[in-house]
């Protein structure tokens, strides 16, 4: 058993600092590629520092090579970190002006977490910063880092736009360290307890002597539009410098301007409104130049715009032929992007309506008139365009000038372009550009601008004011007013101020203002978009006209031009207007019903009247529609005689299916609405309007209902069941629809199915009375958007992800599109869960926060409920909320719960959303307020709250979203001043608001007794507008504003008093809240009780240890509670805890005096020490390239390395170096290609649950030599049974394949396919003979001592046929008894030639000597066999038998004597039925032959010539195939 004490390493580290100097030669350079170079992690304060290859998302490389120091090579640093890396000792005694240069990278929470470089000359007893905030050359960028790196607040910090964005080179003089013999440097990193990121890194450290010191104290002053003064302090005795003034962002210059002026240097001829950067370096003559110091940035001022100069007329006087003061909204005839005042567009607004920090406070003339102003409320960059009406310069002479006033106040003023064109559609040419602000206050005077237009005399022009904000904030409101064009000449000026009044559905009044004394005009009223008239208009002698014959609900445009007698002005306009809706309708009973649509507005009471053509009563049927419902909106239906037929809200606002019949021939309909929700306003319930039908009551309507049937099995389509429940008074009906021409006849009630129809189309079903055109009913639009979601019921619930922290990094998507009623009864929420979908999750915390976020596609009133139960068909509701977020009651960790999401209304929704389930914050309610017992001058820093709905109005706060409740307890009495600040992760401010209550004697009951109003919440003012109002009751202070910092004061606070502080996050953006006391040490200053803290030290990874003692360091603690993974450890109440199992241990400590508590957690991980078993080397052979490079399957070694260890409990990885294996970096993938021969591979085996527990081993990769040869040698075997298949002895063939290679080193195997041979799978079993026909198979020669070392070759298996011999079967072979003349037996060779074989003849089993041919002379009967053997290596042999029989007797003449004596004159064979006779001489020459022979031969040739005396041989075929050969003698003597 081992006991580990955390304080032991300190003595060792201190001893290092006391060692002799380690670095004595310079310049010094360390890039950490060969190790740490003496830079080591402080054992007492290691933090998360590590040396190695950075592999995180942002910090992902070293500055040089592969190694760098980083706070966590692969992830984030830890909370409340104090990590230090200490250098070796530097002897700088030989250096006079040492300087340091190092590469740094920072990506940490701005102003909360950061890094600093410090030095010590007393062995580490005290430390001083190297350099200071604001020093040049990429030195520290902040001086208020809350994480206190190195015990102070300066350093490098930030991320995103405030991060370094990669490696940067930071350089600074080591002031005060020259001549010191024992200098230690350290890089310290500190973080607070809130947000973590990847942190910081440093690399490539160099220390060197500076022979030419850098200048310092560089300042820039007296900046004008084209000049600036630059001053600096010499770095030494130098009197000459180089200065570079260049565009901002250029970077370190290659050279500069030489100067001897440094106090100041006058920079001249600069460009107005331009960002510059300044670099300065010393010129030390023979000692060269110093490093550049910079950049120092400044921006030149704008050049004042040109004022109006007026025009000089050679003849006559000038006139202002165009004037626009923007008193109309929208201005008459102006086009462009519009004037609606949305973010990024122009607005017509009055004086003093400007936003805070931008825009004009007054009109251009100091009055209150309106003007044109850009709205930049949302950091806008959109380009807004305002294009004037046509301005006629065709009669202009001598000169013309455009003049206007403009106001450009605000830090985010963008770019204004004043453009000109000959057409309203452009193209435009820019006449004037202004960039940035001009005025410095909102009440500063407007500035007039004059632009010469002489180049456009004789033309019709259009002016454009084009502007876009800078996009850096909301202070970008540019304003324009009093636009005029002055010119010389005689002009016919178009009228102005065209207005349209008294607009009805069919008529309107138009009027205008004459500008030239004219008394006649022409006007044109045409549909909007028609464009400028090309012909004459209607003439009038008054500046007004009455227009009639217009169409209802139609947009028109008005053009007017002056008739100056001899000429016309150009057309003025267009001015647009829209006629009103139609309210009176005639219903023609001979034609049929009138289908109508009503989209009502706020505070609406419009009456729509319908009158029948023949005096019949009218039926009014609401097909579909919804209003807000009582007590807000009502449907009023009345008869023409004033009788109210209906005045109600339908079914909670739903009007579908309501039907009314008039008493007289007239019926009216109207919606009486309030000022909030309506169809015109696009509000959630009512945006679809009301669809209704009015028909003459000449018949009884049919009745039908409609049911959507999804047809998802057949595609994205649906069907509609039309249920005809009554035909009315019709005898037949017709069902039709608006999508296709299909009709369905109906003669009886029942269900009729129509379709299919595609998703996302509106189908209107019409049911018509075939006998009366007035009896028609229409369905409301029927649509199916999609198939129902898979989680449409609880048993199909989707498993939702649960965040293990308070973020929504993990979400589960969901949709209500086409969701149906699951059938689970409605819960405690008021909404209708008829479109519910279900999710299930496993609780990770006792209290979870459930949020429905990213709602899109409708989504009004999206509710959710929480259920529990083991049976998905019988779940029990725990709670329900009509908000988008809820905090659960206490749950059981590990149990499964269900979330039901649905829309609260009755209408189908197209809502999509994301479901976020995360750990719920504790202090979102007063009862869980967190203690704040910070020491004087300290700060409470905590992550803010997001995603918590606004509970109610509280005090002066009209809303209190994302609340955090805090307790402040007073220590010393007196004045308490507190600052509350809220920032996002990049350090940007977030709106923060607060309420402070108190004082209270104790917390018990305090939350129940808070004054929430004055006396009501709406009565409480903001302290910024009523600074003397508070306190009111126990409300001490209350403030709301858009600022990110708020301050509060507690006067005459008394010791022990308790105050409750509510802080809200209005923006709902994630960030950090900081609460700190700002007054300390004054005579009348009080303070707040010291905050209790506890520190359990860093997490511990223990390999092979049995126990560990955790010590809770907390000087203010009175009692302790210990927990393991959130579960209390009973009986453990002391300040230390001995543990023996892996767990996250938490201690909660209590300060009874402060009534406060603190907690800390530490993860203790116990691991099993693994054994890395040795494994043999991996040996393979080289391929044909002979490059000694091959692929190795490293994973084949894993089983051997593990041995008996469980592969599921240990990880095995392979590495190039022992250092990589020990640090678990650079794991190799398999197969792996070696880089040397032999090559050592290092193996790491680690506990899978405690990866720090590891062991290593190694083995070699060896390429033994070349790949073995596989020789292709065919095998030939005789076909013993003539079936083409025989047996092959493959095992005996190994020697032929090896061809002299060792059968000990190599093995031979055989395969039927090349693929099997290459893969080494499916080998032929050679322990038995292999049966095969002739084919090609494959041999594989594989090394027995090397890995993956083999060759393959094809070779042939040849089934050699036996010799095929046959005898004729046409006759029998016969001999005569005691024959003296032999017969011939002739064998026929069927598959060979006689030269290819050896032949042996047998008679009755005995060899006939001397016979080796295919013919055999036979005298005796018997069994004759011919044995034929191929002469090749196979010697395939076969035996064919032929039986020779002996006749009982033979009477064939043995000779003839053809002498004419009548005796033996002829060869008489007449008794043998000879079919053929052939006679040969002794030379074997055929001399005579005859078919069907009897006795015709008398010793003559075929030609009739006499043959000489002698012996002749004959062959005869007789008796249907018998054959006989013998001799015959010719004797010619008498």
UniProtKB/TrEMBL annotation:
Which Pfam families does UniProt cross-reference here?
A: CHU_C, fn3, GBD_T9SS_assoc, MAM
| Domain MAM span(s) in chain numbering | 322-490
SUPFAM superfamilies found in the cross-reference section: Concanavalin A-like lectins/glucanases, Fibronectin type III
Residue span(s) of domain Fibronectin type-III: 214-306, 494-583
Q: Which SMART domains match?
A: FN3, MAM
Q: Which UniProt keywords apply?
A: Repeat, Signal
The residue range of the signal peptide is 1-21
| Entries under PANTHER family matching the protein | FIBRONECTIN TYPE-III DOMAIN-CONTAINING PROTEIN, TENASCIN
**Any idea what this protein is called?**
Gliding motility-associated C-terminal domain-containing protein
Species this chain originates from: Psychroserpens algicola
Lineage, please? Bacteria, Pseudomonadati, Bacteroidota, Flavobacteriia, Flavobacteriales
């Amino acid at each position: 058993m081992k006991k580990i004490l955390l304080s032991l390493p300190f003595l060792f580290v201190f001893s290092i600092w006391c060692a002799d100097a380690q670095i004595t030669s310079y310049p010094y350079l360390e890039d950490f590629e060969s190790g740490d170079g003496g830079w080591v992690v402080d054992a007492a304060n290691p933090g998360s520092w590590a040396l190695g290859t950075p592999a995180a998302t942002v910090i992902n490389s070293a500055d040089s090579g592969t190694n760098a120091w980083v706070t966590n090579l692969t992830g984030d640093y830890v909370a409340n970190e104090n990590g230090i890396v200490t250098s070796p000792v530097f002897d700088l005694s030989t250096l006079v002006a040492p300087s340091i240069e190092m590469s740094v990278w920072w990506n940490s929470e701005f102003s909360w977490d950061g890094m600093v470089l410090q030095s010590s000359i007393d062995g580490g007893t005290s430390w001083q910063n190297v350099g200071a905030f604001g020093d040049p050359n990429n030195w520290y960028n902040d001086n208020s880092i809350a994480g206190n790196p190195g015990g102070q607040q300066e350093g490098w910090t930030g991320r995103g736009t405030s991060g370094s964005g990669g490696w940067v080179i930071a350089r600074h003089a080591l002031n005060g360290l020259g001549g010191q013999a024992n200098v230690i440097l350290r890089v310290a990193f500190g973080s607070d307890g809130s947000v973590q990121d990847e942190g910081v890194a440093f690399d490539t450290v160099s220390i060197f002597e500076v022979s030419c010191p850098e200048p310092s104290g560089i300042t820039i002053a007296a900046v004008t539009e084209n000049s600036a003064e630059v001053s600096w302090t010499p770095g030494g005795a130098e009197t000459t410098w180089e200065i570079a003034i260049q565009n901002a962002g250029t970077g370190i210059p290659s050279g500069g301007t030489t100067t001897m002026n440094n106090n100041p240097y006058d920079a001249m001829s600069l460009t107005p409104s331009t960002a510059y950067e300044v670099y300065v370096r010393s010129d030390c003559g023979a000692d060269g130049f110093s490093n550049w110091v910079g950049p120092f940035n400044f921006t030149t001022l704008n050049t004042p715009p040109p004022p109006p100069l007026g025009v000089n007329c050679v003849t006559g006087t000038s006139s202002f032929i165009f004037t626009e003061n923007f008193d109309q909204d929208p201005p008459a005839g102006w086009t462009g992007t519009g004037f609606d005042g949305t973010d990024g567009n122009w607005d017509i607004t009055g004086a003093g309506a400007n936003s805070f920090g931008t825009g004009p406070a007054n009109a251009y003339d100091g009055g209150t008139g309106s003007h044109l102003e850009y709205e930049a409320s949302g950091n806008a960059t959109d380009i807004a365009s305002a294009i004037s009406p046509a301005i006629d310069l065709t009669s202009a002479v001598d000169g013309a000038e455009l003049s206007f006033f403009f106001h450009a106040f605000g830090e985010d003023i963008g770019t204004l372009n004043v453009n000109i064109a000959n057409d309203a559609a452009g193209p435009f040419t820019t006449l004037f550009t202004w960039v940035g602000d001009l005025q410095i206050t909102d009440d500063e005077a407007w500035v007039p601008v004059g632009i010469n237009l002489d180049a456009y005399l004789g033309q019709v022009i259009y002016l454009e004011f084009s502007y876009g904000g800078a996009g850096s904030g909301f202070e970008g409101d540019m304003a324009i007013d009093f636009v005029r064009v002055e010119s010389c000449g005689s002009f016919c000026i178009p009228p102005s101020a065209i207005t349209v009044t008294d607009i009805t559905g069919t008529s309107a009044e138009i009027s205008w203002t004459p500008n030239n004394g004219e008394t006649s005009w022409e006007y044109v009223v045409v549909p909007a978009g028609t464009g400028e008239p090309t012909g004459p208009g209607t003439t009038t002698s008054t500046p007004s006209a009455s227009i009639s014959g217009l169409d209802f609900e139609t947009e028109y445009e008005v053009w007017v031009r002056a008739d100056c007698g001899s000429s016309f002005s150009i057309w003025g306009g267009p001015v647009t207007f829209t006629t009103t809706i139609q309210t009176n309708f005639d219903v023609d009973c001979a034609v049929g019903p009138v289908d109508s649509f009503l989209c009502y507005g706020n505070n609406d009471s419009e009456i729509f009247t319908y009158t029948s053509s023949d005096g019949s009563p009218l039926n009014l049927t609401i097909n579909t529609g919804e209003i807000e419902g009582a007590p807000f909106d009502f449907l009023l239906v009345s008869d023409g005689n004033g009788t109210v037929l209906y005045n109600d809200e339908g079914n909670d606002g739903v009007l579908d299916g309501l039907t009314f019949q008039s008493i007289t021939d007239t019926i009216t309909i109207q919606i009486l609405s309030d000022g909030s929700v309506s169809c015109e306003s696009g509000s959630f319930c009512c945006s679809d309007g009301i669809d209704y039908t009015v028909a003459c009551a000449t018949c009884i309507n049919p009745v039908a209902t409609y049911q959507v049937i999804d047809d998802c099995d057949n595609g994205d389509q649906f069907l509609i069941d039309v249920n005809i429940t009554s035909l009315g008074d019709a005898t037949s009906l017709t069902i039709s629809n608006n999508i296709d021409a299909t009709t369905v006849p109906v003669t009886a009630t029942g269900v009729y199915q129509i379709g299919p129809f595609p998703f996302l189309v509106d189908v209107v079903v019409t049911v018509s009375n075939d006998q009366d055109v007035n009896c028609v009913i229409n369905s409301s639009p029927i649509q199916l958007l999609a198939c129902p979601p898979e989680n449409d019921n609880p048993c199909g619930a989707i498993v939702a992800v649960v965040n293990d922290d308070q973020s929504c990094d993990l979400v589960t998507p969901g949709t209500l599109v086409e969701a149906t009623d699951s059938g689970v009864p409605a819960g405690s929420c008021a909404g209708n869960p008829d479109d519910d979908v279900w999710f299930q999750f496993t609780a990770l915390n006792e209290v979870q926060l459930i949020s429905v976020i990213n709602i899109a596609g409708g989504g009004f009133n999206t509710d959710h409920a929480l259920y529990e139960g083991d049976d998905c068909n019988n779940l029990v509701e725990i709670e329900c909320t009509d908000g988008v977020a809820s905090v659960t009651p206490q749950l059981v960790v590990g149990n499964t719960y269900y979330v039901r999401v649905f829309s609260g209304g009755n209408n189908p929704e197209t809502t999509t959303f994301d479901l976020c389930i995360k750990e719920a914050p504790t202090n979102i309610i007063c009862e869980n307020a967190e203690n704040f017992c910070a020491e004087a001058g300290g700060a409470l820093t905590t992550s803010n709250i997001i995603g918590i709905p606004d509970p109610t109005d509280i005090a002066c706060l009209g809303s209190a979203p994302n609340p955090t409740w805090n307790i402040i307890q007073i220590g010393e009495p007196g004045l308490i001043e507190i600052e509350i600040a809220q920032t996002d992760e990049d350090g940007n401010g977030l709106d923060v608001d607060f309420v402070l209550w108190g004082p209270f004697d104790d917390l018990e009951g305090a939350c129940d007794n808070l004054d929430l109003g004055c006396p009501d919440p709406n009565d409480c003012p903001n302290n910024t507008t009523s600074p003397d109002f508070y306190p009111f009751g126990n409300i001490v202070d209350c403030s709301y504003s858009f600022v990110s910092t708020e301050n509060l004061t507690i006067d005459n606070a008394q010791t022990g008093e308790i105050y409750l502080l509510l802080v809200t996050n209005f923006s709902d953006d994630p960030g950090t809240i900081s609460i700190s006391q700002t007054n300390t040490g004054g005579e009348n200053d009080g303070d707040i009780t010291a905050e209790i803290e506890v520190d359990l030290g860093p997490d511990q990874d223990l390999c092979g240890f049995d126990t560990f003692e955790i010590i809770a360091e907390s000087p203010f603690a009175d009692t302790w509670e210990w927990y393991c993974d959130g579960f209390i450890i009973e009986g453990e109440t002391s300040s230390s805890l001995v543990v023996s199992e892996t767990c996250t241990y938490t201690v909660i400590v209590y300060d009874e005096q402060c009534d406060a508590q603190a907690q800390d957690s530490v993860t203790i991980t116990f691991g099993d020490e693994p054994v890395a078993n040795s494994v043999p080397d991996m040996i393979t052979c080289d391929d044909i390239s002979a490059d000694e490079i091959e692929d190795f399957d490293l994973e084949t070694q894993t089983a051997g390395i593990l041995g008996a260890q469980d592969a599921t409990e240990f990880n095995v990885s392979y590495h190039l170096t022992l250092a990589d294996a020990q640090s678990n970096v650079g794991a190799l993938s398999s197969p792996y290609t070696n880089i040397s021969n032999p090559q050592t591979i290092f193996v790491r085996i680690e506990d899978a649950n405690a990866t720090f527990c590891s062991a290593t081993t190694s083995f070699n990769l060896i390429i033994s030599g070349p790949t073995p040869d596989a020789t292709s040698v065919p095998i030939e075997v005789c076909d013993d049974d003539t079936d083409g298949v025989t047996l092959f002895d493959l095992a005996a063939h190994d020697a032929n394949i090896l061809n002299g290679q060792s059968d000990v080193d190599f093995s031979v195997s055989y395969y039927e396919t090349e693929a099997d041979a290459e893969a080494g799978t499916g080998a032929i079993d050679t322990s038995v003979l292999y049966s095969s026909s002739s084919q090609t198979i494959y041999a594989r020669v594989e090394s027995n001592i090397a890995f993956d070392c083999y060759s393959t070759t094809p070779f042939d298996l040849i089934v050699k046929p036996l010799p095929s011999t046959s005898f004729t079967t046409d006759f029998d072979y016969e001999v005569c008894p005691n024959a003296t003349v032999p017969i011939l037996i002739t064998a026929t060779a069927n598959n060979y030639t006689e030269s290819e074989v050896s032949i042996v003849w047998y008679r009755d089993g005995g060899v006939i000597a001397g016979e080796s041919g295919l013919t055999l002379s036979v005298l005796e009967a018997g069994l004759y066999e011919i044995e034929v053997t191929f002469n090749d290596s196979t010697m395939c042999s076969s035996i064919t038998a032929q039986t020779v029989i002996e006749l009982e007797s033979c009477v064939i003449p043995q000779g003839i004597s053809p002498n004419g004596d009548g005796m033996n004159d002829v060869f008489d064979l007449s008794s043998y039925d000879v079919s053929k006779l052939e006679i040969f001489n002794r030379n074997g020459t055929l001399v005579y032959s005859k078919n069907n022979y009897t006795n015709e031969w008398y010793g003559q040739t075929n030609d009739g010539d006499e043959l000489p005396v002698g012996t002749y041989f004959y062959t005869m075929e007789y008796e249907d195939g018998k054959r006989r050969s013998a001799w015959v003698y010719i004797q010619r003597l008498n």
